[in-house]
């Protein structure tokens, strides 16, 4: 029993923000700014606003006072509910002006002397004009922003109404108000949390996150997972619309988002599509010779020994389909921007060709914590052969650059780099380039491009440098440098099919 009790942890107390407190504080600040101070007129207007706000609870309406510092507060009795027997609860409190003791409640004080001393030090005890009045406690509104989350949460909002306002058709949706209540409670201490929804549906979770960030300037981020065909028809349009502006009616924006609202909306929503089983099969392109086809059609292949079945399961996938896009066509790495797969449209048999983001996929495969991704840059270059007169005429002449690389949007040599850290802590540079098919020119341009980056003078010593395509980069390494070069294609293929051996 003792061992079991030792393992019992105290339950976590989940706090939720009280719904109206922030709105009340904002309103009070606006009134104080209007009058320049918390004078009688400001307090009068504050009380008038409270009386007219039907959505406020009785517990909120009693915060009807504002002190000279602009703090909204209420006055509370400090009398103990039961008769206090201990004399320490009957110690008088001295009036700060008359320096005489104030009356002590007949039941004694609600708080111990130490607590009362803290209240005095923090100016949280209210005194009368003189020592004849019993002091009361000053409770600030900003100290009561939250409460413990109840075990039963009630919500009467309908999510379908929100979808109708956006002009998005979907049979059912949960309420963003209820989702926001739950998410806000779980991200109360940290407004930069990641919110993950494995079954995103129509996108209520993300909608609620966007609303919360607009309310409290939070930086929560969402990750949604969905495989239904309504991802493109419902979820994505919904999030695009609520990002644009918070208020919609009949599928049209009621108003444009203010600059402040736009600042608290997502800047980028990244859509990542994972290759499905059907997509993998649709992208297999076997290349079978006449002799192989003849062998498969022979009586021996059709026999009980299962030759044809073994061939289809092993040889066909391992050999004939090698180089298919879904099995990683290394030859297609010559242009990192042009790797394509045929992707089946949800809910139909139609397929379309889409680009695959090799750069980001590789970042994930090597577990790279990305620090920088540069914009693509393209270059032109001219070449000449070494005309050293001391070499025999029949000797091969080395290719040289004729001048410097020239940046040009239409140039054939394209570069993009990623820097970051691998899970084992190695500083990594990933160089992606387009290859023209002339290895001598491609590597000469790569060498010159690498020199002009001048990485060694940037206080950045890379441990690993990845490059697509065969190269001579290690020849440029200085004696005091320790970086190693690895081929992107080799690690891409190794990691892509790790633990898939039959």
Automatic annotation (TrEMBL):
Transmembrane segments: none
Ranges where the DNA methylase N-4/N-6 domain occurs: 169-229
GO molecular function: DNA binding; N-methyltransferase activity
Keyword check for Acyltransferase: no
InterPro entries cross-referenced by the UniProt entry: DNA_methylase_N4/N6, SAM-dependent_MTases_sf
GO biological process: methylation
One Pfam family cited in the UniProt record for this chain: N6_N4_Mtase
Alphabetic keyword roster: Methyltransferase, Transferase
Source organism superkingdom: Bacteria
Name this polypeptide is given: DNA methylase N-4/N-6 domain-containing protein
């Amino acid at each position: 029993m003792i061992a079991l009790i030792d393992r019992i942890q105290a339950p976590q107390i989940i706090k939720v923000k009280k719904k109206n407190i922030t709105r009340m504080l904002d309103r009070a600040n606006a009134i104080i700014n209007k009058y320049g101070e918390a004078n009688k007129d400001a307090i009068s207007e504050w009380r008038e606003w409270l009386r007219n706000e039907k959505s406020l609870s009785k517990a909120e309406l009693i915060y009807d006072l504002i002190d000279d510092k602009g703090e909204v507060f209420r006055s509370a009795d400090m009398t103990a509910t039961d008769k206090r027997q201990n004399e320490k609860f009957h110690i008088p409190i001295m009036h700060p002006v008359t320096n005489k003791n104030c009356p002590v409640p007949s039941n004694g004080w609600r708080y111990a002397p130490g607590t009362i001393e803290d209240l005095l030090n923090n100016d949280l005890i209210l005194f009368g004009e003189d020592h004849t009045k019993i002091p009361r406690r000053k409770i600030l509104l900003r100290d009561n922003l939250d409460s413990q989350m109840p075990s039963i949460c009630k919500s009467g909002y309908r999510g379908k109404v929100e979808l109708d306002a956006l002009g998005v058709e979907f049979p059912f949706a949960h309420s963003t108000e209820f989702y926001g209540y739950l998410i806000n409670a779980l991200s109360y201490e940290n407004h930069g949390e990641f919110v993950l929804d494995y079954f995103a549906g129509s996108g209520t979770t993300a909608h609620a996150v966007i609303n919360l960030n607009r309310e409290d300037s939070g930086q929560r981020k969402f990750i949604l997972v969905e495989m239904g065909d309504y991802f493109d028809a419902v979820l994505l349009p919904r999030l695009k619309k609520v990002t644009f502006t918070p208020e919609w009616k009949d599928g049209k924006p009621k108003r444009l988002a203010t600059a402040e609202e736009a600042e608290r909306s997502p800047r980028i929503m990244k859509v990542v599509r994972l290759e499905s089983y059907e997509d993998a099969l649709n992208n297999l392109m076997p290349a079978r010779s006449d002799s192989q086809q003849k062998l498969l059609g022979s009586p021996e292949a059709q026999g009980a020994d299962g030759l044809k079945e073994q061939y289809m399961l092993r040889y066909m996938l391992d050999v004939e389909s090698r180089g298919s896009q879904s099995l990683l066509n290394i030859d297609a790495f010559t242009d990192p921007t042009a790797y394509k797969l045929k992707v089946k449209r949800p809910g139909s048999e139609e397929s379309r060709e889409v680009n695959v983001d090799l750069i980001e996929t590789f970042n994930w495969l090597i577990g790279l914590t990305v620090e920088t991704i540069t914009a693509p840059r393209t270059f032109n270059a001219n070449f000449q052969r070494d005309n050293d007169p001391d070499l025999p005429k029949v000797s091969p002449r080395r290719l040289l650059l004729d001048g410097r690389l020239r940046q040009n949007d239409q140039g054939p040599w394209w570069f993009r780099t990623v820097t970051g850290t691998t899970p084992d802590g190695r500083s990594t540079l990933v160089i992606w380039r387009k290859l023209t098919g002339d290895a001598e020119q491609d590597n000469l341009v790569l060498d010159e491009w690498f020199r002009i980056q001048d990485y060694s003078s940037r206080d950045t010593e890379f441990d690993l440098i990845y490059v697509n395509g065969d190269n001579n980069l290690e020849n440029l390494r200085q004696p005091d440098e320790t970086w190693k070069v690895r081929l992107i294609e080799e690690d891409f293929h190794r990691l892509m099919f790790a633990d898939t051996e039959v």
